[in-house]
Amino acid sequence: MGIEKKTEASNIILGLDPGTSVMGYGLITIQKQEIKLLQFGVLHLKKYIGHELKLKKIYDRVNQIIEDFMPDEVALEAPFFGKNVQSMLKLGRAQGVAMAAALSHGIPISEYAPKKVKQSVTGNGNASKEQVAAMIQNLLNFKKTNYLLDATDALAVAFCHHLQGKTQRKNTQGWNAFLSDHPNRIKS
């Protein structure tokens, strides 16, 4: 996908699905009511020896994505709780390094549980990765690709963040915003 120039009224969200073998990323832009796909992909980490080198590669790649696209917000999928403590520790480090890259640019970060992401995108908190990928492809209007499911998961995190932000903004705008949005409800 080509890089689009950011306009004043657009909002770019970077979604990240941190991992120690594969990290997915996806960028969407919201302009008025239209959501567009900017780019998505994966960072393959299995080829790097040593956890420290993998963490450096995650930091460097997230930093490069931020410099290339200048996102307004970053949304990450929070680690799910598993039985393997060592895996959870490594995943938490990967997420922390991705967060550090965003924070070094002063970008606000939000985290979402995997079930919350699935619920937001598919309506089912127990949806499979394949169901999430199919729905994201439909919502963002792109054809099936050979990318790993980590990339579509990252797009789902960004999409979830957009939906959550929209809900929060609606709920916190106050009476003036409500009245301007619903002038027919004002009685003279």
Give an overview of the whole structure.
The protein has 188 residues and is an alpha/beta fold. It has one domain: Nucleotidyltransferase, domain 5, CATH 3.30.420. 48% of the residues lie in helices and 20% in strands. It is built from 6 helices and 5 strands; from the N terminus they run βββαβαβαααα. It has a 5-stranded mixed beta sheet with strand order 3-2-1-4-5. β1 and β2 form a beta hairpin. α1 runs parallel beside α2, α3 packs across α5 and α4 (129-139) packs across α5 (149-172). The radius of gyration is 18 Å and the shape is globular. Mean pLDDT is 85; it is low at 1-5 and 167-174.
The secondary-structure class comes to alpha/beta
CATH H-level superfamily title: Ribonuclease H-like superfamily/Ribonuclease H
Spatial separation of the terminal alpha carbons? 52 Å
* Spatial order of the strands forming the largest sheet: 3-2-1-4-5
CATH architecture call: 2-Layer Sandwich
Low-confidence stretches: 1-5, 167-174
**Do you know the CATH topology?**
Nucleotidyltransferase, domain 5
Largest sheet: 5 strands, mixed
Tally of strands: 5
**Overall pLDDT metric:** 85
